[in-house]
Amino acid sequence: MSSSAAATKKTFWAWTIATFFGAGLGKPGPGTWGSVAALLLWALAAWALHPAPTAMIWMLCAGIVLSIAAGVPAATIAARESGRKDPGFVVIDEVAGQWVALLGAPLDWKHGLIALVLFRIFDILKPFPARQLESLPEGWGIVFDDVAAGLYAWGIGALIRIWI
To answer: pLDDT digits over 53-78, tens only?
Structure first.
């Protein structure tokens, strides 16, 4: 295999998961597109299934576990194949973080929007220790800094729901 063929090799399953079925290819701001895709799935589940709040928490937890379990190896492979440490098109980390931010949120558009805005703020700012998690190896660092941002957004969102 020539070096140019190796440089363009893409492992289909990994790129599909890493880009969250293409959401990470959106421009501008692929991370925002990934977060919006996660939010839309949450909203679709709320609208179509009318789950009890506890059921939605369980669905989100399953989604979070799945997005991390599949996302870490997928992000690792996509990053290696692209030759970049943390490529912007890898958005499975935003999906996991956004779903963390939505845990316990009432199933309406206002709370969804609050979770989206808070997550994007914390994902961009990456307060301690989120930024330090980027130094974890490969996919672990790509994914877990956003999970930490999701935890910040979840906490602030919960405080907002208590006070307002």
So the answer is: 999 999 999 999 999 999 999 999 99
State which amino acid sits at residue 31.
G
Helix (H, G, I), strand (E, B), or coil: what is residue 11?
coil
> Residue 69: CA atoms inside 13 Å, Cβ hemisphere, count?
6
Residue type at position 27: K
3-state helix, strand, coil in the chain (%, to 5): 75, 0, 25
Closest by CA position to 15, among listed 118, 68, 67, 91: 91
DSSP helix/strand/coil, 21: coil
pLDDT given for residue 2 in this prediction: 45
Compute CA distances 23 → 75, 85, 117, whole Å. 14, 19, 18
Q: Per-residue pLDDT tens for 9-37?
A: 899 999 999 999 999 999 999 999 999 99
Q: Would residue 21 be called left, alpha or beta, if left means φ above 0 and alpha means ψ between -120 and 50 degrees? A: left
